[in-house]
Design goal:
Layout lengths: L1 H24 L3 H25 L5 H24 L3 H5 L2 H14 L15 H4 L3 H10 L1 H5 L1 H25 L9 H12 L12 H26 L4 E2 L9 E2 L22
Antiparallel strand pairs: 1-2
Helix pairs in contact: 1-2, 1-3, 3-5, 9-10, 9-11
Amino acid sequence: MADSENNEDGDSVGGLRGALRALYYGSDTKARVFRFLLLGFDLVTVAFFIVSSMMEPNASIHVVDLPIAGILMIDFVARAIVANRPLRFFFRFSSLVDLVVIFSLIAPLLLDNLAFLRVVRMLRLMRSYHVLHELRKISAFFRRNEEIIQSSINLFVFVFVTTAIVYVVEARRNPDINNYFDALYFTVATLTTTGFGDITMEDTLGRTVAVVIMVFGVALFLRLVQTIFRPHKVNYACPQCGLNRHDPDSVHCKHCGTVLNIPTEGEW
């Protein structure tokens, strides 16, 4: 009798895991819709985090925090169930970030400053490779502009996370940084080397962050911007010399002159 009960429990757990895997990794219409709904929810929550960071904490914001935390926790548990190696899943950077997000949402009074680290969730959101895979298959526009779209996303994530670091470090130290938008203004002014000077770092930690942004961030920022605005190229290996990047309408390889047969969809 006990064995049959154990078998039933195992079957139910296995059935739940199979159903969740079908949603998170399946290729049917229901799975795709589910993943796009998750992506949409993430986008909405990130927008809410940005807006709420510019507002004074109040009861209405905390009321919204709790349902978001509940949905994020359900998603986290579901992804842990479908993971091939659950222990490794818990120690992934994206998983640790999600736990910080959830904890910050349910403890806003104790961790008011740390709560804004939840914007780091953008790193996991924008690296949703399953959604990118779906976009490649269903959108000709995405396939044509994939490199530009990914570079734009990388730029957005970089600026977003850098701003979050500036805000978390300086919100309680610097009287000129009162909300997330102030931190965004300082970050963009620093990355673009504009340096208006109306917001400056007064403490050692803040100046250290500013130095890191100027030394490493400016170079990366300019590189990402250059990637977005440079002329569009297609990736196609020349059979003769191996050159990979060509103009979309190239007939001959610019390096060796070999005739190219770049596949197109007739839209160039």
